[in-house]
Amino acid sequence: MRPDSIFNIHWRRLSRWLLLGTVVMLLWLLYPTVRCSIESLQKTSFAEVAEVTVQEEGFFSKWLGATKRCYKATPLLGQEAWKTYTFLGLAGATLLTGLIARFANRKHGI
Known about the structure:
The protein has four helices and no strands. It is mostly helical and 110 residues long. The longest helix has 33 residues, at 11-43. The radius of gyration is 22 Å and the shape is elongated. The two termini are 14 Å apart.
């Protein structure tokens, strides 16, 4: 390709930046669930954990149950539409630019 070509893009670098954006959006979408889960963990006293009998739920099963309830309240793709579309767009663009980078590098022998 000519150096002044509009398609002379460093696809691998662009793919990495898009991957970073995808990870940031994933963390942003999971934040409400994590926050709710931590709050439910803090509400559980250690005295309750020490008194657990064999027939009762254990600490981790209670915490995982609370996490599932929190996720049902704010699922990953069930929040505001623009957040969902941004996350899916970044993920798709990451995949697309990664494939373009792979084929471009194969073509140039890199």
